[in-house]
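User: Just a sanity check before I run the rest of the batch. Below are the structure tokens for the first item. I only need the designed sequence back.
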């Protein structure tokens, strides 16, 4: 298989996950009467998704989580304490070595990190500001890109630190795609080890 063609498609797959999450958020604008159904399908408090793509020396992680799991609320931060909670949470999200522990022998190092947080997205705020009383959902999507010098050793990941940092996260639904494997798993604080 011409594996060098696989990475762009995996990355596109991750990008499309992100688009789905965004479309879901905007759907709420127009379909309030169905909000609960949509929420149950795609945004359940306590549940996050982690998409993992591995190709050659590149590892891409995409975390998509209700803001509730990460920050503890989903409204626009207004008090100083709210702002502090957002800053603290984003700082934790950037501390990827504590959240996602990779085998040292794989030689992985972070090359890029991008946080897309509905709570600090100005466009998102404008859309919602007309009715402050309606229940809102907000998501956080984080993309982590790594380069691994010895990717054959990259066969596991351990998320104990993630569940400690974000204890409102009860479950992470994992989808992993590599040239060799495609698998789905569920991780919890009691079962934080992923292997493939
Ligand atoms: Zn929510």
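Assistant: Here's the designed sequence for the first item:
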């Amino acid at each position: 298989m011409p594996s060098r063609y696989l990475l762009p498609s995996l990355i596109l797959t991750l990008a499309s996950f992100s688009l789905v999450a965004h479309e879901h958020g905007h759907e709420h604008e127009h379909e309030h009467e169905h909000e609960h159904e949509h929420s149950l399908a795609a945004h359940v408090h306590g549940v996050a998704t982690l998409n993992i793509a591995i190709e050659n020396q590149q590892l891409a992680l995409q975390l998509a989580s209700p803001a509730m799991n990460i920050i503890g609320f989903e409204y626009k931060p207004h008090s100083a304490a709210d702002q502090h909670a957002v800053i603290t949470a984003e700082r934790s999200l950037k501390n990827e070595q504590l959240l996602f522990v990779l085998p040292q022998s794989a030689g992985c190092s972070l090359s890029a990190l991008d946080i897309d947080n509905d709570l600090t997205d100005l466009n998102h705020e404008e859309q919602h500001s007309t009715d402050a009383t309606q229940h809102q959902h907000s998501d956080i999507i984080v993309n982590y890109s790594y380069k691994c010098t010895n990717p054959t050793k990259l066969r596991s990941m351990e998320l104990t630190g993630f569940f400690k940092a974000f204890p409102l996260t009860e479950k992470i639904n994992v989808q992993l795609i590599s040239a060799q494997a495609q698998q789905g798993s569920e991780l919890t604080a009691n079962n934080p080890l992923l292997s493939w």
